[in-house]
């Protein structure tokens, strides 16, 4: 079941939990957090599934709506672009993959240099980030091949479908993350 989810408040209550798990990457993490049964109770409407553990329907709907992807143009101001990268991408990846080190290098070394207007040696950390981005891209292409483009096998269970949806979300998020850095931010510093 593939649905297009719109981030409208209150619109999710009647939709089956399994539909979110299969079509909205990150939904299973929201369900686990609120102790909502996505496997055996996957066909239950969200309102019913949320009520079982005593979770707050409004809060769960807000968290699900926050997962719906939405593209935006890169801000013109460097400070705003860095803030967008940190809040939209780094926060998401840190929540989903807390052991990431790449973002710490950007936040502790590169971004402070950029916020101060640059540095004569800024090309070195930018070059390192570009190299890591290229490596991430190669790894994402391998993941895409292993998961047949994020399309689960016919008859896959909800857990399997959620895994594939999660790999699609990871790939999409990382590619969206890398794009503004490589193509909007780094060129502002001659790299």
Automatic annotation (TrEMBL):
Residues 101-188 form the Hemerythrin-like domain. It is found in: Cytoplasm. The keyword Iron applies. Pfam families: Hemerythrin (PF01814), ScdA_N (PF04405). Its main location: cytoplasm. Gene3D superfamilies: nmb1532 protein domain like. InterPro entries: Hemerythrin-like (IPR012312), RIC_family (IPR019903). It comes from the Bacteria. Keywords: Cytoplasm, Iron, Metal-binding. The keyword Nuclease does not apply. This is DUF542 domain-containing protein.
């Amino acid at each position: 079941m593939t649905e297009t989810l719109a981030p409208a408040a209150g619109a999710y209550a009647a939709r089956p939990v399994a539909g979110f798990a299969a079509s909205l990457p990150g939904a299973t993490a929201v369900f686990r957090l609120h102790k909502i049964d996505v496997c055996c109770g996957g066909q239950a409407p969200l309102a019913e599934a949320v009520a079982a553990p005593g979770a707050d329907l409004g809060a769960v709907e807000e968290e699900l709506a926050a997962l719906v992807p939405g593209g935006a143009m890169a801000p013109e101001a460097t400070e705003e672009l860095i803030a967008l990268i940190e809040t939209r991408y780094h926060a998401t990846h840190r929540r989903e993959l807390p052991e990431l080190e790449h973002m710490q290098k950007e936040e502790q070394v590169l971004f402070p240099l950029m916020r101060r207007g640059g540095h004569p040696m800024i090309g070195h950390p930018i070059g390192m980030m570009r190299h890591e981005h290229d490596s991430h891209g190669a790894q994402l292409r391998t993941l895409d091949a292993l998961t047949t483009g994020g399309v689960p096998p016919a008859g896959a269970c909800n857990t399997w479908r959620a895994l594939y949806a999660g790999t699609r979300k990871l790939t999409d998020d990382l590619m969206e993350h890398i794009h503004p850095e490589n193509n909007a931010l780094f060129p502002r510093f001659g790299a």
